[in-house]
């Protein structure tokens, strides 16, 4: 139980800071139908759990060994993130859950995937945090620990969606438009930061 609780608390510590995934879940909870927002939250959690497992077992070490792979993820990740942020910033907000705002299932899933897996900083940070715990655990405790991390991820994103969706009716179109612009601007800045990291790494 102690190992499971360590994984659970570590999972919450990783998810709590506001980042791309949280912004994506918040925006979907505010602008999409309830059903579609839960789909988005579920797939964010699903891809996040997959990434946590990969980090736990050393994907960060692979990125460090193959510099070209890290460069490729930084470049494509930054461009895609900036593109998504730009679309969100420019999007016109209409009635929540209308056909004009509803994302297709493919776009919902693919965006969730990109937000999680095309973020090299999240991969590196996750590898450092989870990898550090791995060396302190017996092999028999690996599955217990990562189960705690997975439960934390699922609980966090579904819970975040639930809370935001519950109060979204209190926001009018103008407020949602402002939220879209703020989220879009933050995502664009995050993408530019990733591109800056790519340039610095390329120069050195």
What features would you describe in this structure?
This protein has nine helices and no strands. The protein is mainly α and 204 residues long. It has one domain. Helix 3 crosses helix 7. The longest helix has 31 residues. It is flat and about 50 Å long. About 3% of the residues have low confidence. It is a multi-pass membrane protein. Its main location: membrane. This is Amino acid transporter. InterPro entries: LeuE-type (IPR001123). It comes from Companilactobacillus suantsaicola.
| Helix vs. strand class | mainly alpha
**What would the average pLDDT be, to the nearest integer?**
79
Tally the helices: what do you get? 9
Which sheet architecture does the biggest sheet show? none
Question: What would the principal axes of the Cα set say about the shape?
Answer: flat
Percent in strands: under 5%
Radius of gyration: 18 Å
- How far the N terminus sits from the C terminus, by CA atoms, comes to 45 Å
Annotation, overall tally of beta strands: 0
Write the H/E string, N to C. HHHHHHHHH
